[in-house]
Hints:
Layout: E1 7-10, E2 13-16, E3 21-22, E4 25-26, E5 33-35, E6 43-46, E7 49-52, E8 59-61, E9 64-66, H1 69-75, E10 82-83
Parallel strand pairs: 1-6, 2-7, 5-8, 7-10
Antiparallel strand pairs: 3-4, 8-9
Amino acid sequence: DTPVGQLYSRNNLFIGGPGATTGGYSSGAGNVMQLATVVTATADINYDAFGSTLGTFAGNYAGTNFTSLTQLRSISTEKNAVQVDLSVFANTIALPTAALTLFAKPDLRLRSGGGAENVGVAIPNVNDGYSGAAPDAGAYEVGAPLPVYGPR
């Protein structure tokens, strides 16, 4: 139970999976967050989007269990968090049916009008040039071209 310190989180999109055990290691229970050992004095989380493939909203923050977005907001600095599900994505996201299965990389671009659009906060030199009222949660801005990675 190593303490999680100096945590700063903005504009992330977290979706808990169904949970499983593979090779003796558990991937959890599908919680939207599991930060039981976070050091609250040095944690600053806000403007993130949370969901679960199970359709539930449960987790643990600093040793306190929560079962709703309202409870998460009340026990953390996550005052502007939003609740989402897989419908935030423009395309269907197929979860692997078995651990360690090779599957095609999913297209994680957001759906216009989805719950993760315009819910973030501007971070200089990170999400400059966003469109809409605010940056989107997740890796991609709605309607923006996919970024080019690697050598050009």
